């Protein structure tokens, strides 16, 4: 919104700052600045909160188990519209059929098979995570992201299995058997020792600069080692023959670049919202 030719960066009633301005019921201005507005260049981004001011789409598309009807669920006050979601799935379970990409690049993650859809509502109660209940639960990107550098930032509840996997096992990132990190790239497998914490929500970051792969959990480096080749990202969860289960996700942001210089800022932004550590 402008006054004359000047953009409005802040608005007040008296000395009280206001976050939104409406004309009737139409929002015409917001002070909101999302993670993707600050740290630009993401290839894909999935979240249960709004990540970009210009994004006007939904957060997720949900199938309710009672009659298999599907509905898009958006945001209220920049967070998942849990009121509408709970009403839509009243008394039944709800499963995510699509997690929409907020980056603007259209990498929506979907799953058509009901048995493999992650859960978001249990008996009418909205869950905190997009929850993978069983091996095989997944959401598949509509196109593969391949890059010689890759940075992935996620708010998740990791089990002893993996995180992001490329279809066909061409390349993937995952926690292997709870004790190491496996980077499978276009030139093969690389395992590096790690000491991740499983079974509770954490902010995990995977950064590959084309030479070295480093994994962080809650701001601390837990593993690092030599890696080479391109890494391709095709899906969230188990889209291979490997049981690489993660208990649940709240947010995943993927950059086709080395984001080492922005890592701490991105993690802080996530932690300020989710209060993980």
Describe the structure.
The protein starts with a strand and ends with a helix. Strand 20 and strand 21 form a beta hairpin. By secondary structure, it is mainly β. Helices cover 8% and strands 48% of the residues. It contains 3 helices and 26 strands. It is globular and about 55 Å long.
The portion of residues forming beta strands comes to over 45%
Number of strands: 26
Q: Point out poorly predicted stretches.
A: none
Multimeric state of these chains? single chain
Radius of gyration over all CA atoms, rounded:
19 Å
Broad CATH class of the largest domain: Mainly Beta
Percent of residues in helices comes to under 10%
* Tally of contiguous helical segments: 3
What are the key terms here?
mainly beta, single chain, 8% helix, 18-stranded antiparallel beta sheet, 2 domains, 48% strand, 277 residues
Layout of secondary structure:
Blueprint: E1 2-3, E2 6-7, E3 11-13, E4 16-18, E5 20-23, E6 26-30, H1 35-38, E7 44-47, E8 60-64, E9 70-73, E10 75-76, E11 79-80, H2 82-88, E12 94-99, E13 109-110, E14 119-122, E15 125-131, E16 138-147, E17 150-158, E18 162-165, E19 172-176, E20 180-185, E21 188-193, E22 202-208, E23 212-217, E24 220-226, E25 231-237, E26 246-255, H3 263-274
Antiparallel strand pairs: 1-2, 3-4, 5-6, 7-26, 8-9, 8-12, 10-11, 12-13, 12-14, 13-16, 14-15, 15-26, 16-25, 17-22, 17-26, 18-19, 18-25, 19-20, 20-21, 22-23, 23-24
